[in-house]
Amino acid sequence: MAASISASQLHKPLPSSFHGGWGSSICGETTGMLAKSVPEVVRVGKPVRFRPMMKNVNEGKGVFAPAVVLARNIIGKKRFNQLRGKAIALHSQIITEFCKSIGADAKQRQGLIRLAKKNGERLGFLA
Predict the structure, then answer these.
(1) Domain range annotation of the chain
(2) CA of 118: how far to CAs of 3, 74, 81, 115, in Å?
(3) Which residues, by range, are in coiled-coil regions (predicted)?
């Protein structure tokens, strides 16, 4: 059986729980009330940015940490960091020369340097 719909039936409103037109719900009094409840100018201050701290997780730990901290306090932080940088560079050169002598590739050399850094942290050299 085919159902037929007449033109007069198309213009009848469908039953629904929505009471009101699209104009009043989107552009009507609801929008006006919403616009009044929000301030016109919202000032946002400059966001607070925290600088990342490059700290040793094992600071103060390790056998050599007290000696390293004492040396840093006696020599001064700037001079101490210069000496430590030179010592780390020299140690990396020694590791590089060792890798050349045994025929290790760059990846193995980098692994040894990382291992030396990790051991230095554990022993307290980087406190």
Answers:
(1) 65-123
(2) 82, 25, 18, 5
(3) none
